[in-house]
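Hello Y.,

Per our agreement to keep a running log of every chain we model this quarter, I'm adding this entry. I've kept the format consistent with earlier entries: sequence first, then predicted structure.
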Amino acid sequence: MHWKRISFLSLAVVLLLNLFPFTVFGAEATAESSATGAAALRLYGKDRTATSLAVSQQGWAASDTVILNELNNYADAIAATPLAVQLDAPVLLTYGAHLDPRVKEELKRLKAKKVILLGGNGRLSTTMEKELTELNYEWERIGGADRYETSALIAERVPSDTMILVNGDDFPDALSAASYAGIKQIPILLMSNPEFPQTVSDYYQKHKPTQVIVVGGDGVVPEQLVKKQNIPITLRLGGEDRYESAAKLYEYAQGSYGSKQLYLASGQHYPDAMVGTVLAAKNNSALLITKSYTLPESIAPIFAPDKIAAMEIFILGGTGVVSGKIQAGLEGKDFTKNLLIGKTVVVDPGHGSPDPGALGPSGSQEKNNNLAIAQYLAVELEATGAKVVLTRSGDNSPAYSPGTTYTERGDLQKRVDIANENNADLFISIHNDSWKTAQGTTTFYSSENPSGTSSYKLAQYIQSELTQKIGTKNLGVKDSRLYVLRNTTMPAVLVEVAFISHPTEEKQLSDNAFRQKAAQGISQGIQAYIRYLERV
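Predicted structure for the entry above:
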């Protein structure tokens, strides 16, 4: 067996809701509110493009104009919210090189006549221009040399005696401002720190708006930096963090919101929130941001049961970005008992540059799958009260940094050290298997681990729950002398989720819905193990 350790990503499972005849996917809802909660509808898809389509299908039966944004660059779309509301145009996300086939279908459904491309050729290519021309769409591009100039160009399309200034290098404050800006038709200008964009300064000097609203604290939009541009700040809506800033903006703008709807999105994962700002503004509703697994203290009072009982809540994104625990709380329903409160779980995404792990037939890399699944598993576990430590949160091995010498042994030891030094209660390593045309799922433990018996029991529960959740062949629980299992001091398992070497399972491992299911299955196995400990 080829040990190229685990890869797990998980995104959202796409459930259907036929709110409208044209709803294709991406909506999950409760039919009615409970006695103590609100009706909740979740809009999401298996990837960023699919989520943008779900939002479009929720809000638009047709639209003459559609705005396209590159799916990895959020800033242009946030600044475009007021213009999109003015044009009553949804924002769709696509890769920059060419039109996603799903986007083409959505353009047909919307009966679009014109497409606006956001950003320069480096964001959305000239190939896309040719595709649109061949499909007989009128198109234009709004794009400057950078996101700051693009925001100024968009602002020219939204005349106002007010401007909103936000940090354009990090987006939570801009998200909070966008729905309000869309409702009030106030342009959003993006600034940078420490170099204030000249194009934004030029915009102010040209138009001299009577009111300049800054969203965010002094740490993200420094007063001194703004004053150097001779831009007077009329009002600052900023708190100690992004969530308090959002709460202050909501309080300030409350009179502008005229519907019985609220939109809730992640303040940490921006694409889902970004495409939702236009829908929220279209419906005269506020968009608020949250942590993935719990409502922040500054936001929670807005969602108090007595305030939302007669409201409809739209959650943007899957449970990997806004957890099921939050949704259950809003609906006044019970959620999984916080079984893991007080527990520390080290989640180990196997491999990482310079080691890609196993490679699939189509060239996919195990390291990417492992990291994605691990990140979703972290959210699932945090929702049950656990403290989660990831051995790596980015592409690189935890034992590698520029200028250092990488060794496999050093990599494995670093993962062990992270677990032992954090006094973890559990160690969960995520991998993909690789061996010819084999298929299925295996969970490994080591009888040489000081907690070998507990590791075996943990492996049993995870193997059972995971295979039931993802529907793969159950290859069983196996004893192994794998380094990370022998040398950790707490119950430890290594999960080979599926075979990246098999074309079908490779495709599954690259699918966000499958990744999320895998994370949920592993989490459920851990919870079953904790319940077992409570019984013995």
